[in-house]
Amino acid sequence: MSAELSRNINIKEPRWDQGTFMGRAQHFFMVTDPRTVLLSSESLDEARVIVENYRAGIVKPGLTEDELWKAKYVYDSAFHPDTGEKMFVIGRMSAQVPMNMSITGCMLTFYRTTPAVVFWQWVNQSFNAVVNYTNRSGDAPMTVNQLGVAYVSATTGAVVTALGLKSLAARLPPIASRFVPFAAVAAANCINIPFMRQRELKYGIPVTDENGNRLGESANAAKQAIIQVVVSRIGMAVPAMAIPPVIMNALEKRAFMKRFPLLNAPVQVGLVGLCLVFATPLCCALFPQKSSMSVSGLEADLQERIRKASPETTKVYFNKGL
User: In 32-143, which ranges are continuous DSSP H helix?
Assistant: First the structure.
């Protein structure tokens, strides 16, 4: 049976063409599938064994191509692409929908008082810090001290930004004040992600040629990667934080919502979840996971090293993170 499965399937790359938006969207619908969060450690390890064995030329008897791809996507959902380490469960992209729908729903529901804004922004930015660290690019470790400084800087900056925007909202119409959480999240992402990935900006991330041969580390590549991730994260927040406020503003005027005000939070969470199911993979797909840039865009010393070691290389590739 094992002879029936080709040994030439390239599972190092996604199943679908990453040169197109639709191909990337199909890929990320699999990677962000929240059902994989529920898989046991045994299931994850089994998928890892199947993938690593296949890469080594060992095929499990009776394994089909669909089973191989399923194992590959389970593996990708739980293990870091650069380090190979099993990622912290709530930091995985597959946990984005259930975690974000709960946190974002509460942020949109409890936005009227300063303590509520501080608490839910802190919860949100703490979660984002975990996600940003878990999905960082590169394989260089961060010390506990570096991680602590990054976390405090990121969460403090984000919460202060949210409070500043809330004070401005006091002079806005009620419907406009509902969008304050989105503005705060968008601004906070611009602070949180660079802080949590500041080591990459300082020391660079690994860049390779088209065959995966490591050529060095580039801070310029890290800048491009982080900008792309910030844009994607803000894009993820747009539907979930812009559409529910409009719907809830209309629903709260209805008699049944006035009679049952406790429905506010669960309805809001449900609306956010519906938006995130589609926004998360589609916004991850805005840019290829394996990003690229011209050699001429790298640091001068790295350009020189690449030209000496691999003169035919004109473009480098790197994992942008998520």
Answer: 41-55, 65-78, 96-109, 114-134
